[in-house]
Amino acid sequence: MTVIDHALTASMFMVAAAMLFSLYRLLAGPSVPDRILALDTLYINTIAALMLFGMQLHSTIYFEAALVIAMLGFVGTVMLSKYVLRRDIVE
Questions:
Q1: Torsion angle, alpha carbons of 20, 80, 69, 11, to 10
Q2: Contact at 8 Å (CB) between 42 and 26?
Q3: Residue 91 within a domain
Q4: What is the CATH number of the domain that holds 82?
Q5: Per the domain annotation, does 42 fall within a domain?
Q6: Domain count within the chain
Q7: Is 68 within a domain?
Q8: Cα-atom radius of gyration of the chain, to the nearest Å?
Q9: Which residues contact 12 (CB under 8 A, 6 or more apart)?
Q10: Which DSSP helix (H) or strand (E) runs through 67?
């Protein structure tokens, strides 16, 4: 294994730890905005994990999956924030 492989493995463990912390905040968040922020952080960490996994396997399909998750996560965050502010999604 090269140094880059070790760095990728260590980075994946750090991202996994960040995902666990985000999951804890999502489940035990004191308020709804905190939970929305934790969900946003969780999907960003998922994107990072997919990118690192794709780099480790030398595959481009993971980058495309990360792009789809980014688009869906953005729309989901906007919808949840709009719901919290107005209690209605559709105007």
A1: -30
A2: yes
A3: no
A4: 1.10.287
A5: yes
A6: 1
A7: yes
A8: 16
A9: 49, 52, 53, 56
A10: helix 61-86
Cβ burial, residue 1 (10 Å; 0-12/13-18/19+): exposed
- Written as one letter, the residue type at 78 is V
**pTM recorded for the entire structure:** 0.85
Residue 85's pLDDT is what? 83
Query: Where on the phi/psi map is residue 87: left (φ > 0), alpha (ψ -120 to 50), or beta?
Result: left
How far apart are alpha carbons 67 and 84 in whole angstroms?
A: 26
Owning domain of residue 57:
3-86
Tell me the per-residue pLDDT of 62-88, one tens digit each, with 9 for 90 and over.
Answer: 999 999 999 999 998 888 888 888 876
Reported as a single tens digit per residue, the pLDDT across 3-35 is: 999 999 999 999 999 999 999 999 998 888 899
For residue 38, tell me if it sits in a domain.
yes
Tokens found for residue 69: 């998750």
